[in-house]
Amino acid sequence: MSLEVHRSVAAFRSAANALRHQGKRLGLVPTMGALHAGHLSLVQAARARADEVALTIFVNPMQFGPSEDYGRYPRTLERDIELCREAGVGHVFAPDASDMYPPGERTRVQVSGLTRALCGPHRPGHFEGVTTIVSKLFVVAGACVAVFGRKDYQQLKVIERMTRDLLLPVEIIGLQTLRDRDGLALSSRNAYLSADERSRALGIARGLSAAVFAFQAGERSAGVLRKTALAHLTEVGLRLDYATLADADELVPLSDETRVGERALLAVAGFMGQTRLIDNVVLGDDAAPIASAERSGQTRGER
Ligand code: PAF
User: Fold this and answer.
1) Atom of ligand 1 nearest to the CA of 59
2) 31 C-beta closer than 6 A to ligand 1
3) Domain boundaries, the chain
4) Which CATH superfamily is domain 4-175 in?
5) Which of 39, 145, 180, 296 makes the best surface tag, with the fewest CB within 10 Å?
6) Among residues of the chain, what percentage have pLDDT more than 70?
7) Which residues pair with 172 in a beta bridge?
8) For ligand 1, what atom is nearest to the CA of residue 152?
9) Residues 253-261: contacts with CB within 8 Å, 24+ apart?
10) Are 116 and 169 in contact (CB under 8 A)?
11) Residue 299: what pLDDT?
């Protein structure tokens, strides 16, 4: 299959319009590049739901804080394009920042409530950056089905709500987190980890798994479930931003005194060395990351 690379908004918009005129459904996979097997699983999910897939690559400056890793975020465009070609992507949209943020731009898209907890307070401005850029990508792509990973669970919920509230003609699909064989959630930022940090980072998957097993065994105290995970995170020296149980839809944190109902989000974020990692499970929905990684066959060797 041929692959077209579009560097301007006008070129990508006209390619997306042409597809729709041919009666084709577009599948959109928004990324910041540095593609890994997790992104390629999003591509496969998009291919299953659409006639042609467009993958966007844009390291969005607006969603990085001043002390974050915008400057050193991996940029591997040529390799990403090759991976897209092999994966059957029909269109890559890789715009310049000046195209997505024209000089003099003043407009921001903000979702309230869902951005208040979890990563919100730790990354001021981050979600506004995400919703501003994703809404622009949706406006350029037009009607489509868009696929996101559930590793960024809060991002997924915020984008779902934005799309619904702004009446955008986009169907949002949230895909299960892809993990390495040992359970570590795939992330472009894993490339920053030393061998020692990577092996300690597995404490996150162990902590989430321990909480899933406790939940499956009938534990319903939010405090006990949270502390069950926390023990593994502190053991490996994760510098914690948060380990929080929250309502899985509204993302309102549950106090330790809460009795958890049928399902709840357990989300973790913290630094392993200089690298910020996030991961989560929805208790009541998701299998334990480590057991599920071993059982599901959805595993990848280390990259
Ligand atoms: O998840 C990401 O890679 C980014 O946050 C996204 C959705 C592409 C917006 O820049």
Assistant:
1) 10
2) yes
3) 4-175, 188-296
4) HUPs (3.40.50.620)
5) 296
6) 96
7) 146
8) 1
9) 253/117, 253/118, 254/222, 255/222, 255/223, 256/221, 256/222, 256/223, 256/226, 256/227, 257/222, 257/223, 258/221, 258/222, 259/220, 259/221, 259/222, 260/215, 260/220, 260/221, 260/222, 260/225
10) no
11) 43
What pLDDT band is residue 291 in, cutting at 50, 70 and 90? confident
Q: Say if residue 1's pLDDT is above 80.
A: no
Rounded to the nearest whole angstrom, what is the distance from the C-alpha of residue 148 to the centroid of ligand 1? 8
- Give 152 Cα–ligand 1 centroid separation in angstroms: 9
Q: Is the CB of 128 under 6 A from ligand 1?
A: no
| Mean pLDDT score across all residues of the chain | 95
The C-alpha atoms of residue 248 and residue 264 are separated, in whole angstroms, by: 5
pLDDT at position 300 over 50: no
The greatest distance separating any two alpha carbons of the chain, rounded to the nearest whole angstrom, comes to 56
Q: Do domains 4-175 and 188-296 have the same CATH topology?
A: no
* Model pLDDT, residue 100: 98
Ligand 1 within 6 A of 272 CB? no
CATH number of 188-296: 3.30.1300.10
- Ligand 1 atom having least distance to the Cα of 134: 9
133 lines ligand 1 (CB under 6 A): yes
- Which tokens hold the place of 204? 């996150």
